[in-house]
């Protein structure tokens, strides 16, 4: 199954946190890292008194079920010192979101696919479009069209010399 993972960090050297997590995605069992975007900087969604975020998107092919993949992502977050305290959109060392899992549309207490809000956030759509320009968010539309609707949101490439892979 092809899965798309959003990465974000705004604490404890965010560039290094996201870069390391991108490398660590290759170690997820029964999965292969296929592509990863450049790093992007964006303003936080939550409280304004926090640092900007560093974001990226990765593509993996996996034999894991969606919830098993989610658990693997949560383990990586824990390894990076992520503490889940219930605060939404607060600062964090690492946030790994399962954005898309094939064309699955589902929702329960543990996992919603596609990831809620992904279709209206430039920090998801810009790196996703950069590595998968033909991608579609099930039930929402083509990434290229969704990206157009987010042009008023600010995002910048952190290192334009680093190629997307």
Keywords for this structure?
alpha+beta, 165 residues, six-stranded antiparallel beta sheet, single chain, Alpha-Beta Plaits, two-stranded antiparallel sheet
Radius of gyration: 15 Å
Shape: globular
CATH class: Alpha Beta
Series of H and E elements: EHEEEHEEEHEEHE
The number of E-state strands comes to 10
Number of helices: 4
CATH architecture: 2-Layer Sandwich
Beta-strand portion reads 25-35%
Main sheet properties: 6 strands, antiparallel
Q: What is the residue-averaged pLDDT?
A: 93
So, the CATH homologous superfamily? 7,8-Dihydro-6-hydroxymethylpterin-pyrophosphokinase HPPK
Distance between the termini: 19 Å
CATH topology: Alpha-Beta Plaits
Integer tally of domains:
1
Low-confidence stretches: none
How much helix is in the residues? 10-25%
Question: What structural class do the secondary elements suggest?
Answer: alpha+beta
What is this entry, summarized?
By secondary structure, the chain is of the alpha+beta class.
Describe this structure in words.
The protein starts with a strand and ends in an 8-residue tail after the last strand. About 25% of the residues lie in helices and about 25% in strands. It is globular and about 40 Å long. With about 160 residues, the chain is α+β, with helices and mostly antiparallel strands. The chain has a single domain, classed as 7,8-Dihydro-6-hydroxymethylpterin-pyrophosphokinase HPPK (Alpha-Beta Plaits), CATH 3.30.70. It is built from four helices and ten strands, in the order βαβββαβββαββαβ. Strands 1, 2, 3, 4, 5 and 10 form a six-stranded antiparallel β-sheet that branches.
């Amino acid at each position: 199954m092809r899965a798309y993972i959003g990465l974000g960090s705004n604490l404890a050297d965010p560039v290094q946190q996201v870069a390391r997590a991108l490398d660590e995605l290759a170690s997820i069992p029964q999965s292969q890292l296929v592509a990863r975007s450049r790093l992007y900087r964006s303003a936080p969604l939550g409280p304004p008194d926090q640092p900007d975020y560093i974001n990226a998107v990765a593509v993996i092919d996996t034999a894991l079920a969606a919830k098993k993949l989610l658990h693997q992502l949560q383990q990586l977050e824990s390894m990076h010192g992520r503490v889940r305290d219930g605060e939404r959109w607060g600062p964090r060392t690492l946030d790994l979101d399962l954005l898309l899992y094939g064309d699955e549309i589902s929702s329960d207490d543990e996992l919603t696919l596609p990831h809620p809000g992904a279709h209206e956030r430039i920090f998801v759509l810009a790196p996703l479009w950069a590595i998968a320009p033909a991608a579609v968010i099930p039930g929402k539309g083509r990434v290229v069209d969704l990206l157009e609707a987010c042009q008023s949101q600010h995002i910048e490439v952190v290192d334009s010399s680093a190629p997307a892979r």
